[in-house]
Structures are given as C-alpha cells and as structure tokens.
C-alpha cells in the first residue's frame, strides 16, 4: 500500500511540523485545514492542501474514498483551555463531534491507521509525581473532556472495525523546526514560551506570571516542555508501528521532568536578554504541576528524544519569532 497520509490541521503549529517530517522521509501528504488558526504558508510545498472543515463529512468522505490513504494523522482542533471553559459546546463540537465524523469516514473508506493528538489535560490535577498512562482520567476542563471522548470513540471503533490507532497525549509542546521551515505562528497565543519570546522580540511589553502561591518549589506552576521535533518523531514511530501490524497504543509524550514558570522565564532571559515580568493572580483551571512518565513511548516506540534541552527549545522558539517579525515587516511594507 502507498504510504499516503491525510493530515488534519496540517497548517497549524504541530500539524505543519508533522507534514514536513512526513514529506522529508518520503510519505505522500494531503492536508485538510480550514485555516482558522493555521496558515497556508506553513505547509510543505510537496503536500497538497485542501482548505476545508473536517466537519464537512461529504468532502472528507470523498477525499478518503478516492485518495488511497493508509493513515490519518488528526491534529485539527480547538486548543485553548480557558476558552473551552467559557464556550464548552463549541469545543465538544469541534473536537468531539467532528472527530466522530472523521473516524466514521475513516472506517467507511477502510483507512487502516489513525494517529490522534490527545493531551495531558485528560488527567486533570495529578500532583508532583510523573503521571503514567494508567492514571485515572479526570479531565478538569471541557477541552480535556472533549479529547478524552475522542480517545474513547477511537478505542471502541478499533474494537469493532479494521482500524488501529495511536493516541498520543502531549504535555507542553514548544520550540520550532530547527531547519526554520515552520514554527508556532498563532495569533494571540497563550502558551508560556510563545508569549515569552514574543515579549523578547518586543511584540509584547512583557509577561504576566499567573500565580506564585502554588505548592511547588518556587511557588509557580511546573510543566514538562517537549520540543515539537521530538513530539513529531514519536508520531512517525507510532505510525510505523501500526503500518508494521503492531497493536494500537496510547502513550504520553513529554520528557519526564518539569520546569517552573520562573525557571522557563529565567531561561528566556538568559537566551534573549531580560524581559519584563509582572506577578498576577492564578489563571483559572491551572494545575500546580504536571509532568509525564514517558517511559512507555521510549519502551514501546523506541522513541529517543534528541532535543531534551530547555535552552535549545527557547532558542528555536526565539529564532522562529524573529523570522515571523521579519516576515511581517516584509509583508506590511
Ligand atoms: N500545543 C500544545 O501544547 C498541545 C498540547 C496538547 C495537545 N495539543 C493538540 O495538538 C493539536 C494541534 O495543536 P496546535 O498547537 O498545532 O494548534 P493549532 O491551532 O496551531 O493547529 C490546529 C489546526 O487545526 C485547524 N483546524 C481547527 N479546527 C478545524 C476544523 N474543524 N477543520 C479543519 N481544520 C481545523 C486550524 O486551522 C489549525 O491549523 C490539537 O489537536 C491540540 O489539541 C496541542
Ligand atoms: O502568559 C503566561 C502564559 C502561561 N503562564 C503559565 O505557564 C504555565 C504553562 O501554561 P501554557 O503554556 O498556557 O500551557 P498549559 O496551560 O499547561 O496547557 C498546555 O499544555 C496542555 C498539556 O499539558 C495542553 O493540553 C494545552 O493544549 C496546552 O495549552 C501555566 O502555569 C500558566 O499559568 C503564565 O504564567 N503566563
């Protein structure tokens, strides 16, 4: 069978990195993206881009029916936790209902493999110990619940039909393609490292630290930041496993150690020069600490991360931010 992958959300931050990685190793790639938070200029030249909503099941069905795909990588979705609290039904619509339709189209068209972007948000508050995949799932936001429901649908569909899947639960994804071809370009981004490097290049006046009264070493929240290149490498390994006839798998993707908000911002200061920081209240819904036990991905996928270095992550994010600034100046002049 041809190695041909439908990448949903392939014009977004993580999906565009995956599309590049797939093209780099010779897979054929078709992207479906409605360009709500993604950009057509992030897509590799060798990939076909279909600008459409994955909720347009007629379009998706006809793409899959005639397309000769052996896999779907499903990145499309809505991703901002506080937004999901304010507007839960739109999250269930975009992340759960539309994923259901996509899975159904895959089953009907006989696409045998499905790799899905899930999230550490399916665990909820877990304490300071690294969290393994068999930890009880108690999402605390509609975003986390919307993703968990898709995990459940995939597992049930795989039991009933000829489908194998990889569910990958991402911790905090950051950094950019070291080759400089793509990076996080979201407008009004809320992710810590993205916001900090925007401040470093002068796009923002500074950054607010959301709470310093957590039960952590320095009082700020602890997260497990993973370089997007390592994250994407695990997707390719998961896909290869399925293509080789391996079992479905659910695995965390993180490095297994955490950094506090203050440690991250210190690293940004070290790399880019000091940025302005102000102390603010806690952001609703933030857990004090969440760190992956990522031993399963290493064991089952033979995943060997190459970019487990916070300084390198920040350097790559900063390089991309500078590139965006130059690009914006070029397009506005
Ligand atoms: N960034 C993170 O730290 C993180 C962490 C955990 C999980 N994830 C998951 O990874 C995936 C990708 O996230 P990202 O950071 O690249 O976000 P992103 O917003 O950059 O990418 C999402 C892409 O999906 C597209 N899209 C959204 N809804 C669509 C629809 N209905 N039809 C077609 N296209 C649609 C957007 O235009 C965008 O290009 C998401 O599913 C997200 O939940 C991200
Ligand atoms: O301007 C900012 C932005 C963030 N933070 C803090 O930085 C930490 C990380 O925040 P953020 O980068 O927004 O990531 P999370 O809230 O941890 O959520 C991310 O990581 C989850 C998995 O752990 C994914 O599911 C989500 O999609 C993704 O947004 C949190 O303590 C925030 O309070 C600040 O203090 N100031």
TrEMBL record:
Which class of enzymes does this protein belong to? Answer: isomerase
Q: Where is the signal peptide?
A: none
BP terms from Gene Ontology: galactose catabolic process via UDP-galactose, Leloir pathway
Domain NAD-dependent epimerase/dehydratase, first and last residues per copy: 5-254
Q: What keyword terms does UniProt attach to this protein? A: Carbohydrate metabolism, Isomerase, NAD
- State the source organism's domain of life: Bacteria
| GO MF annotations, alphabetized | UDP-glucose 4-epimerase activity
Write down the chemical reaction(s) this protein catalyses: UDP-alpha-D-glucose = UDP-alpha-D-galactose
Q: Which cofactors are named for this entry?
A: NAD(+)
List the EC numbers from the record: 5.1.3.2
Q: In which pathway does it act?
A: Carbohydrate metabolism; galactose metabolism
- Cite the InterPro entries for this sequence: Epimerase_deHydtase, NAD(P)-bd_dom_sf, UDP_G4E
Q: Which family does it belong to?
A: Belongs to the NAD(P)-dependent epimerase/dehydratase family.
Q: PANTHER family from the xrefs?
A: UDP-ARABINOSE 4-EPIMERASE 1, UDP-GLUCOSE 4-EPIMERASE
List the NCBIfam families: galE
* Record text on subunit structure and interactions: Homodimer.
The protein's name = UDP-glucose 4-epimerase
């Amino acid at each position: 069978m041809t190695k041909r992958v439908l990448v949903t959300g392939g014009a977004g931050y993580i999906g565009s990195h995956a599309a590049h990685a797939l093209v780099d190793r010779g897979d054929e790639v078709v992207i479906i993206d409605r360009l709500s938070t993604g950009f057509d200029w992030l897509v590799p030249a060798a990939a076909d881009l279909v600008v459409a909503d994955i909720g347009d099941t007629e379009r998706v069905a006809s793409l899959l029916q005639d397309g000769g795909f052996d896999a779907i990588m499903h990145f499309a979705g809505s991703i901002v936790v506080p937004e999901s609290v304010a507007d839960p039904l739109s999250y269930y619509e975009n992340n759960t209902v539309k994923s259901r339709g996509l899975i159904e189209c895959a089953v009907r068209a006989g696409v045998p493999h499905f790799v899905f972007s899930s999230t550490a948000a399916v665990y909820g508050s877990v304490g300071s110990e690294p969290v393994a995949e068999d930890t009880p799932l108690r999402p605390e936001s509609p975003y986390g619940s919307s993703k968990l429901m898709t995990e459940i649908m995939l597992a049930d569909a795989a039991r009933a039909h000829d489908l194998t899947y990889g569910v990958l639960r991402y911790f905090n994804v950051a950094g950019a393609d070291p080759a400089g071809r793509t990076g996080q370009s979201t407008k009004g981004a809320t992710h810590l490292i993205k916001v900090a490097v925007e401040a470093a290049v002068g796009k923002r006046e500074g950054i607010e630290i959301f709470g310093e009264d957590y039960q952590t070493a320095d009082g700020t929240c602890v997260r497990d930041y993973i370089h997007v290149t390592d994250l994407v490498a695990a997707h390719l390994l998961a896909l290869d496993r399925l293509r080789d006839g391996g079992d479905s798998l659910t695995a965390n993707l993180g490095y297994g150690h955490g950094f506090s908000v203050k440690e991250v911002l210190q690293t940004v200061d070290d790399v880019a020069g000091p940025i302005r920081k102000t102390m603010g209240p806690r952001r609703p819904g933030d857990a004090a600490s969440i760190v992956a036990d990522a031993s399963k991905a290493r064991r089952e996928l033979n995943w060997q991360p190459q970019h487990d270095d916070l300084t390198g992550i920040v350097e790559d994010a900063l390089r991309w931010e500078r590139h965006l600034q130059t690009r914006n100046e070029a397009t506005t002049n």
